[in-house]
Please model this.
Amino acid sequence: MIKRLAIIPARSGSKRIKNKNITNFFGKPLILHSLEVIKKSNFFHKIHISTDSKKIANLGLRLNIKTDFLRPKKYSGDNVSIMETLRFVVNEFMKKKLYFDEIWLFYATNPFIKKKYIF
Model:
C-alpha cells in the first residue's frame, strides 16, 4: 500500500489579507474547505497542517486532524519558499521514523477543491 502524506501550509502571518487561512468563507474558516475534501478522500495515510499557529492547528481537530508539530518561526516568514517548508515537514516526520512514498501539497486557500480532483 502506498503511504501518502498531504501537507497543507497555513502560516499565520499573511500580509495582504489578515488571518486569511481562518477567515470565514461561506460559513466556515477557509482552511476547513480544503481539509474536509482531503479527509473525505480517504486517500492519505496522514494529513499535516504545516502552521506556526495553535489556532490554525486547532481547526484541524474539528475533523480529527492532529497537527503533530508546529512550524518554527524561521520557516514561517515571507521569504521562506514552499520547498523549504515541505523539506522541514518531511524531515520532522523522518525524525519520528515516519516515512511516506508520496508527498502531496494542498493549499489552505483553495475552497473549490473537489474529491474528484485528487484521484
Q: What stands out?
A: Residues 25 and 34 are 12 Å apart (CA to CA).
